[in-house]
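explain this:
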Amino acid sequence: MRRRRISAVALAAAALVACTGAVSSAAGQATQPAAQPAAKPSPKPTPSATPSPTATQSDGTLQILTYRGYAEYGGVSPKANWVGSFEKETGCRLARVDTVRTAEEMERAVAAAERPYDLISAGPALAGDLITRKLVQPIDSAKVSGYDDLNERFRDMTKVSGKVYGVPFLWGYHEFIYDSARVKGASMSQAFASGRAALRDSPLTIADAALTDATVKDPYELSQEQLDRAMALLKQQKERTYWRKPIDLVKGFATGSLDYAQATPYYRLLLQKAGKPVRTVGAKAATGWLDSWMLGANLPDTTCAYRWLTWMTAADAQRDAAAWVGLAPANDKACKGRAKSICDLYGADDPKKLDRIAFAVRPPGGCRGEDGECTEYAVWGKRWAELAE
């Protein structure tokens, strides 16, 4: 079965993008909301007078890997100069800030790095891998000012064997949307059966297919039989498309090539603001993820790293980042001002809505469910690759 990916062409698509503002992605992330002007490209970190290609924290510098929009030099507002303001107020310097658009690009960047990064903003799958490979170290939360302001459920998600392995930053979830002008009586079964549907090109999408299985209690803790049924559902439709960048969703609906898509609430909002009649397919549950800042292993001095973790924990930084990328902040105090509409969109202050979201564990698999040992994430990756055969 050959997986098709959406073609990014057509004037109609370009017109829609112009209406919604520039868009990009990380793990389903967006850039700035449509109501704000497009930002100028973030300049690269300015090196010191005597830069060193192997600068380490021992000389007050940091090397960071993150998603675009997570560490900016301005754009949303003068106050959104996360990097510049951090350097000015802490005395620490970012010698290197590598940014990526997708989770796949981040995995490649980690693998290609000549030396480990000091800090990485990782999603659940990569976080699990970094912990297993001992590329990150436990975080002393007492050294992170404002840590207790972070939502407790997100703090718990970053713990492994009682140790903290990340500072919660932004989170989101996927829903299925459809073109109400073309589809009547939309359902999850129709979405998976349609050849005019687009799914996120990631093994974690298996969890979304698993949500249709009445025997599944946690879509990230699947028995072998449950995994087999989820894969059978995915294999039924050979004409389905798979996306890696949310911009493809925008263009797909703009050109009329899509009836259904797996997307974040933010992209549904963008399409609706652009006049597209998209609605959400009714479902009892949804899959979500949390991105958190992780501390690299074997650092000679963690002083500046902890200053960065504290900086990115604060409500102001999370508020601007949430408004910039279209994801919800982990710090509930950030749900004011420019981030309020994003928090409302995701239901950040609605415990019942949050209870409907099955967040990916760290790492997916590696558990023991009621029916025996769950399938490992590595197995998910191999089964996902079967869709391309």
About this structure: The domain at 4-31+172-287+362-388 is CATH 3.40.190.10 (D-Maltodextrin-Binding Protein; domain 2). The chain has a mean pLDDT of 82. The longest strand covers residues 167-179. Residues 100 and 108 are 10 Å apart (CA to CA).
